[in-house]
Amino acid sequence: MVTVGMLTPEDRAVWQRLFDGYNTFYGRTMSAGFFDTAWGRFAADADIHALGARVDGVLVGIVHFLTHPSTTTADLCYLQDLFTAPEARGAGVGRALIAAVADWARARGCDRVYWQTHEDNTAARRLYDAVAEHHGFVVYRLAL
After folding, report:
1. Fewest CB atoms within 10 A around its CB: which of 8, 21, 79, 107?
2. pLDDT digits (tens, 9 = 90+) for 78-115
3. Three-state SS string across 40-96, please?
């Protein structure tokens, strides 16, 4: 059974391992200072938020998200990072994390939750196609 809840100080090491796995998947190497800053922001739970998924009490998945205003609707919730430990994939962890973010956002009056993934992330896209609608938008980035 998958349970989802707030991260605790005791989760720090496993959270960092999972978040490092997420960043490695996308070809990024992050400094120790990056993880310290991110953990502090998630612990404050003010402008950016984190939840963890557990199976048999073991942290096996994480999700990071934030809200922002919209020009055309109520606030939106952006699900920025989602990662499940490889050994826990296929057990409903990702689905449970998305549902928990949706519940969190709904309780705060958000209009919707949205996220993006790389087009070749086929494993994740199977789940995303099952729980949400793809509206065909293309993402552009301008590095600053």
Report:
1. 107
2. 999 999 999 999 999 999 999 999 999 999 999 999 99
3. HHHHHCCCCEEEEEEECCEEEEEEEEEEECCCCCCCEEEEEEEEECHHHCCCCHHHH
